[in-house]
Design brief:
The chain is of the alpha+beta class and about 725 residues long. It has 21 helices and 24 strands. Strands 18, 19, 21, 22, 23 and 24 form a six-stranded antiparallel beta sheet that branches. A five-stranded antiparallel beta sheet has the order 4-3-13-12-11, with helices on both faces. Helix 3 (about 75-85) packs parallel to helix 9 (about 190-200) and helix 10 (about 210-230) runs antiparallel to helix 11 (about 235-240).
Length: about 725
């Protein structure tokens, strides 16, 4: 008994010492910790953004904070139900919840659950860093308790709602209400308030514009919790479940699309963090304010999205939009990505490949060209430069939809099963792609066939200057260097002679592709995507409600691309496109190409004007070579005996000389030597004699194979009676 008492005393003593140590440690760590009223009064004080020069960015103006009386009770309760159901019963710290979370963390050997109350989240968002340490947690607890002593619960909840991040650069519930629903917080319905409460767990993951199903599922969870906690009646609960989530921003006039992308990227960098759980951070971006100002000069009678991408840093320099960055049908802008580049990579085509532009029925799908099919052959280069539809569909049909989708997927242009039809060659899809995604894909060609997603954030530091993240682009091979080099060359043709020819006044090589999505009522989308080795400039025009627009890709978007490129290179020039040792420049026979639609290497002896120059992959260069000039060859001429003379009819040739020899009784004579003539007549023949003619084609010093014609014999002419007329 005495021994047991001694042991108990020792254990209690140790426990008391530990408690005392913890007490002194707590007070040592939290000494001097105070509530900063200014931080509580300001929105988004924990994030500081800088442009590419290190100058602080004035983030988009956030609307005035909503007062407690302006926020409906059911909206407040939505946040309480999902974030802190004991909010009105604890004093800043929910010790019961904290102990439960601590036990789960201990048993799972992780630190995933923090059990922070709304009060603690407010403190963390406004006063502390993002580091997950015991010291920071103790400061958070101390400040939360001080805050609860100084403010009423409703005031704390209001401060919290005015400070948290809701995605797409919307900070605070008032700003979020206007962005998502086009109304003030005071006008929010239960379903709308529940959706905003659902977002803060992960604004990027649960954005209704990225994953409407996930957003609705999370919102419905909030509604269910509100019903279970008696914050919502049964009828209101059922009605709220039937309300759809928004699929596009309600308004965008005051939203800086670039900064919205910065915040989204930040959320993606810290995917496990809740809204505003980043602490005090310094975010250094690639943002160019002067470029942004230039982009904002773009005007049209429709919505606009335009951007500039740094192809070397794999970074977004500026982004302006009046409609966010919606997924839209890419129209013909998809042709280089889904059709021509994959077909080049698979050695199915080369720039010179002849393609017949005629109406074709592909199992019930009958595409047509703008202006109708020409019924003529054209090269792949011409078809791409002029954005001819039917050849693109033919190439995709040969390539295969699965292979095309695979290449698109490597560029993060993901397709659905419904998209896998030949209409994909013309941009026919269910949803489409965003303009930044298309710009990243086009940059693959400038980047020698490698893909890297563009970033807006160069570096992230905490409030102590410690680097938490540095952008280091991961590049994945999509196409070979030779395919990329050929695509760069082909897309320059779209500028020099094709649909993007408005850019040809630029004093440097530039690649471009236009696109126009057309429906029965008119055009719905217009693109011009241009790039140099250093930058990509992308333009989209259209209406959010898909009503017709007046623009075509080669019109207003091309004009905007021209202006922005001029601004980009006002005092400099872009770098030269990378060349590939696996690309060769060869000459092919023009006559054979035009008449037989075959790519055959030109005869080395060919004169100027009889061949064409084109580039080829070494692995797919032509092997057949013409010998039209070095070995002159003709069809056997016709020979006719008529009216006492011999007539030799030569086949049509433009470049050959001819020598014609006649043999009679062992004697050989040259009856003709010179340029092509259709008919060569020999009037010096005699009746009853037999003659053999030999035709020899020549080109310069090159002599072709002699052609011996069939022997002919001249018949004696019958004498006509003088009185033949008497009958």
């Amino acid at each position: 008994m005495k021994r047991a008492l001694t042991i108990s005393t020792i254990v209690l003593g140790i426990f008391a010492v530990i408690l005392l140590a913890c007490f002194f440690y707590y007070f040592g760590v939290t000494a001097g910790v105070r509530i900063d009223e200014k931080k509580l009064a300001s929105e988004n004080t924990f994030l500081t953004l800088y442009d590419h020069n290190g100058t602080e960015i004035e983030a988009n103006a956030i609307r005035a904070s909503a007062s407690s009386s302006e926020i409906p009770e059911y909206v407040k309760n939505a946040f309480v139900a999902v974030e802190d159901k004991r909010f009105y019963r604890h004093h800043g710290v929910d010790y019961k919840r904290m102990l439960a979370a601590g036990w789960r963390n201990l048993t799972s050997f992780s630190f995933r659950e923090g059990a922070s109350t709304i009060t603690q989240q407010l403190i963390k968002n406004t006063h502390l860093s993002s580091e997950k340490t015991i010291n920071r947690k103790l400061k958070e607890i101390k400040l939360a308790r001080l805050l609860e002593k100084k403010y009423e619960k409703d005031d704390i909840l209001t401060l919290y709602l005015n400070s948290i991040y809701f995605g797409h650069s919307a900070f605070g519930i008032e700003n979020a209400s206007h962005f998502y629903f086009g109304k003030s917080a005071a006008e929010l319905a239960p379903a709308e308030g529940a959706m905003l409460a659902a977002l803060i767990k992960s604004p990027n993951r649960y954005s209704p514009f990225r994953d409407a199903e996930a957003c609705k599922a999370r919102r419905d969870l909030v509604l269910r919790l509100m019903r279970e906690q008696d914050y919502l009646g049964e009828a209101d609960y059922r009605a709220a479940l039937d309300v759809p989530v928004p699929t596009a921003p309600a308004e965008s006039e005051t939203t800086n699309a670039y900064l919205s992308r910065v915040y989204d990227e930040l959320a993606a960098l810290f995917p496990d963090a809740k809204s505003g759980d980043w602490g005090s951070l310094r975010i250094y971006t690639y943002y160019h304010p002067d470029l942004q100002t230039e982009l904002e000069k773009t005007s049209a009678d429709s919505d606009i999205c335009t951007l500039v991408r740094d192809n070397r840093a794999q970074a977004l320099l500026a982004l302006y939009s009046t409609a966010g960055t919606p997924e839209r049908l890419p129209a013909s802008a998809i042709k280089p990505l889904a059709v021509y580049a994959p077909a080049l990579e698979e050695n199915l085509i080369c720039p010179a490949t002849p393609l017949l532009d005629e109406r074709t029925d592909f199992g019930g799908y009958c595409p047509d060209d703008c202006g109708g099919a020409t019924g003529t052959y054209m090269s792949a280069r011409y078809a791409l430069a002029h954005s001819v539809n039917i050849p693109a569909v033919k190439i995709l049909n040969e390539l295969g939809l699965a292979r095309a989708a695979d290449y698109l997927g490597k560029m993060q242009l993901n397709t659905d099963e419904d998209d896998l039809s030949l209409a994909l060659a013309l941009g026919g899809m269910r949803r489409g792609f965003t303009l930044p995604a298309l710009a990243d894909a086009y940059a693959v060609f400038a980047n020698c066939g490698k893909y890297a997603a563009s970033a807006t954030i160069a570096r992230v530091e905490d409030d102590r200057g410690r680097t938490l993240y540095t952008h280091s682009p991961v590049q994945d091979r999509v196409f070979s260097e030779d395919t990329a080099a050929i695509m760069n060359d082909m897309l320059q043709s779209a500028v020099t002679e094709g649909t993007a020819k408005k850019l040809r006044t630029l004093p440097f090589p530039v690649c471009a592709k236009t696109g126009t999505a057309e429906v029965d009522k008119g055009n719905t989308d217009a693109y011009c995507i241009s790039y140099t080795r250093d930058h990509t400039v992308a333009i989209w025009m259209g209406n959010r409600d898909y009503t017709p627009i007046q623009a075509t890709g080669g019109g207003l978007p091309a004009n905007a691309a021209l202006r922005i490129n001029k601004f980009l290179y006002l005092s400099t020039s872009p770098s030269a496109f990378a060349e590939s040792d696996d690309v060769v420049k060869l000459r092919f026979d023009k006559t054979v190409y035009d008449e037989q639609h075959i790519v055959m290497l030109a005869d080395p002896a060919a004169p100027a004007g009889t061949d064409r120059e084109e580039i080829f992959r070494k692995s797919a260069q032509p092997v057949l070579q013409s010998s039209f000039f070095s070995c002159p060859t003709i069809q056997t001429p016709a020979i006719i005996c008529q009216n006492g003379c011999v007539q030799i009819v030569l086949c049509q040739t433009e470049y050959y000389d001819y020598e014609i020899k006649r043999e009679n009784r062992g004697k050989i004579a040259t009856i003709y030597s010179g340029k092509y003539r259709k008919n060569i007549c020999d009037n010096s023949v005699k009746a009853g004699e037999r003659y053999v003619y030999t035709v020899i084609p020549k080109y310069g010093e090159h002599v072709g194979t002699p052609i011996v014609l069939p022997e002919v014999c001249i018949k004696e002419q019958e004498k006509v009676p003088e009185d033949w007329w008497r009958g």
